[in-house]
Amino acid sequence: MSVMSLAVPAYFHPRREAADWERLRALGDRLGVVVVNPDSGPGSGDAAYRSAVRDLPGLVAGYVDTDYARRPLSEVLADVAAYRRLHGVEAVFADQVTSSAEHLGHYARLAAAVDGPLILNPGVRPDPGYLRLASVVVTFEGPWSAHAALDTPDPPGPAATWHLVHGVPDGEEERTLHRATALGATHAYATAAALPNPWGALATWVGP
């Protein structure tokens, strides 16, 4: 597989799916980002996560739900602090992010309050202002059929961009990652798994 950086939403448990986590470690410098998600947020302190991320290559970010700017920033930042305290994770993966200019101020306040790297996930190409707030912005999250129909590149901006593609037909993973790169993404992930939870196991093709 050739893409500038593999970035994986690792929504699977480090102990129960230990083999998947070993495959992640084996990727070495090919692994750019891993998102951990103990319980749609930091959870209550499962020690398996702190142990798993300690020697993981790449940037490790904790999943935080922003509920499309409806969740109070105080709650979001409490989750950020809990990831740091419970799991030793400094970076933030902010999910359910809006894409319109209307809420740029909300996310600018979040970005100003986060000490570590920030990843924003609107899942679509957002207002260009979002690309000035984060280290990485997810500009595509959706099915392979929709990704295959994209015909324009990601918008330019200071942030790196990331494509998350699910429902990928068997044997199409490499072509999907190449396509993400051609569209301007610097991070990508492709899996055959589909909704409702395509990120619940590591894609079978991933390995050293």
Number of domains: 1
CATH H-level superfamily title: Enolase-like C-terminal domain
Helical segment tally?
Answer: 6
CATH class: Alpha Beta
Category by helix and strand content: alpha/beta
Biggest beta sheet attributes: 8 strands, parallel
Can you tell me the overall shape? Answer: globular
Level of helix content?
A: 25-40%
The assembly state of the depicted protein chains is: single chain
Terminal-residue CA separation: 10 Å
Number of strands: 8
Q: Give the name of the CATH architecture.
A: Alpha-Beta Barrel
Task: Report the portion of residues in β strands.
Answer: 15-25%
How would the blueprint of this fold be written?
Layout: E1 6-10, H1 18-26, E2 31-36, H2 47-54, E3 59-65, H3 73-87, E4 91-95, H4 104-113, E5 118-120, E6 136-143, H5 144-148, E7 160-166, H6 173-182, E8 187-190
Parallel strand pairs: 1-2, 2-3, 3-4, 4-5, 5-6, 6-7, 7-8
Short description:
The protein is α/β, with parallel strands linked by helices and 208 residues long. The protein is built from six helices and eight strands.
Walkthrough of the structure:
There is one protein chain. The chain has 208 residues and is α/β, with parallel strands linked by helices. It has a single domain, classed as Enolase-like C-terminal domain (TIM Barrel). It is built from 6 helices and 8 strands, in the order βαβαβαβαββαβαβ. The protein has an 8-stranded parallel sheet. Strand 3 (59-65), helix 3 and strand 4 (91-95) form a beta-alpha-beta unit.
